[in-house]
Design goal:
The protein contains 1 helix and 19 strands. By secondary structure, it is mostly beta strands. The chain has one domain. Strands 6, 7, 8, 9, 10, 11, 12, 13, 14, 15, 16, 17, 18 and 19 form a 14-stranded antiparallel sheet that branches. A hairpin with a 5-residue loop joins strand 17 and strand 18. The radius of gyration is 20 Å and the shape is globular.
Amino acid sequence: MLSGFFTRKKPPSATVKYGYMYCGTALARSRSRFRYPIQFPRHGPPSRCKVTGNPRGVRAHAHSTGYAMRLRSVSISTIVLAAAALGAPQTPTPPQNPLLRHYRAGETLVYQMTGTNESWHYTIRADGVVRKDDSGAFIEEYRWKDLVSDGKPAALTPETDSFRQRLSLDPSVNPSVPDLTRVDPRLIGPITDFMTFYADLWLAVKTGQMTKPGDHFYFKMGMPSSWADGSRVLVGASSIDFDFTLKTMNAADETATLVVRHVPPDTPHIPLPAPWMQAPVADTANNWVQVAKQPDGKFIGSAGQETFTVDLTVSLADGKILAASMDNTVKTVARTCEDQPLTHCSAPQSHAIVRKIEIALVPAKP
């Protein structure tokens, strides 16, 4: 049913670009993942980002130069994984779709985000307003402010004040990657995590499969996405499917609960360059791999399982997000090796990267 979603004929006048995107920053804390069909701005990806060809996906990552595991910074960490813009022809949305967004121009929305990214704890606010874009489609436009990092207020860069993030739950409006070149690097994770919440709900609405409690839809994405940059990260890939369930619909308070599990495919199609990487780290086949070259000439090879679960509380009155949470875990085994084929290595070391992100719709401040 969804096969047509991942093809799009480029209009003759368009200069839209697609591919994997790797964005380097010095902040491991801006880990995020976004795994949905999106489209670069017409000017291309951000200047700090490197694109490698793949017509299906884009992933961007913030990374730490001091810790190889964090080079695979995602939730795009990703930071932004995306596939080619969803396509023509558009699938009509069934009129009975209870999650469909009903927009009202001028509506204001304020979300408080709380994040735990390994040892980093933060809160930040997104102030939004509903308006129409140049095509006449409804969008939500957000300004980010009031960052509190590890309990202390933190000033954002002056350029960030003029940045506006545009999102939409209209199924006819394809998600798009914002220009992140002038954004405070600490916001890359929050911005792309916010996109993930919207993209999960957007795709659930787009499929038209979520109409009553218990409805379930499994979306086989499967194909690997890569964040390898060819110099520091020699191999970097993961493979994920999407599992949607409409858990509850409560007529009394007019809310619905949607659960989206991002799970390893039955057969992850990722390159595992060493035999020891084949052994499952958790209860599924490994769907995450990275080989990073170190300054001393050694190599750190890592393999494991990545999953994350998104819970969304949605208003049945107008389809807006009332609250959402994301639990993202990467369980890995890593070895430090003398050679690139990863045959002469140290004993394995286990590590878990754990992130939890929450948003809640809150009253606007006077």
